[in-house]
# Entry
Amino acid sequence: PPYQALRLWGAGGLGEAMRLPLAVRPMQQRLMAATDGRLHLFWLDSNVEGQTRLFTALLKPTLERERELTILTEQATVRYALLPGLNGGVWALAAGGLVSEPSIYAHFVDAEGRPRFVEDYEVVFNADWPAPLVNGDGSATLFWLRKTDGQVMESPLLDGRAIDPQAVMPGLLLNPADRLEGFEAAQDATHRYLFWRITRGDGRQESWFSSAARADGQWGIPARVMVQVAAGTVYETGFNGGAGEQARAGEMLAGWVRPMSGLFDRLATTAVVDGSLGVLYWQAGTIRGYQAVVTPAPKLLAAAEVLSDRDRHLYLIWSEPTPAGYANLNMTTTRRLDG
# Structure
């Protein structure tokens, strides 16, 4: 039977896999910190009727299950995003309901893995692709795409409620054969960013972005992520992973762009540029540097992810299909095994 496997990364490398027999057809697994070294595990899976719902379970520091799994959503669920709450709690923002009329629903899970029960979980109607952001002052903002026209919407998020929804900008034009693969919000010290990932009908992977200064909140017109790398130059990334090369907006298409969560003086995103999988660095709303990591770029099943630990070491993670018919989950890191 299917199972979910978790492994701890430490000074000695990867630990043994912990198998959690909590799955039928699990997808989109994500972890969030609870308290006392414990973790919240979230994933999409089938309920007993075969319908997709959002599940969660609380794990011990050893990755063993501490609480029984909980099914959070009552509606068909297609995707979700997580927002850290107070004292080890987590807000899960799930998009689902009727395919033609989806909504975004907010579910709070406390540090003990217990969901908060309320009469109405709906945050916004006619909405998909939730993209929450924790601001520098600790407040939260929710971005999403209006289902009917792809319009980008924004609202402060207070205790799971959208306070004052506003239209930010028109949506991107998608042809009938195009597919939206991802929509995320991110930030650096001075700017906020929105990113779209699109697979065109001919198989091309494009990434688009818009940025806005915190000072005025004026969003730029969305543009494709295009890069020019200055070979042989040095760019100090601000993370403990060595130097990259200076880069700017240019004429070379960058695909599979996915931003790192958190708030740093500059923003790191994954990207495939000129045949390499690497990290793009952004600051003040523009591209500033690039660091090629894997050459040639692997064939990706989805956008790679870049994460930072408390010491600003980076972890690049991606899934790659094999000739045997399954995919490997790969990782490389700037942290030494003995450090």
About this structure: The chain has a mean pLDDT of 94.
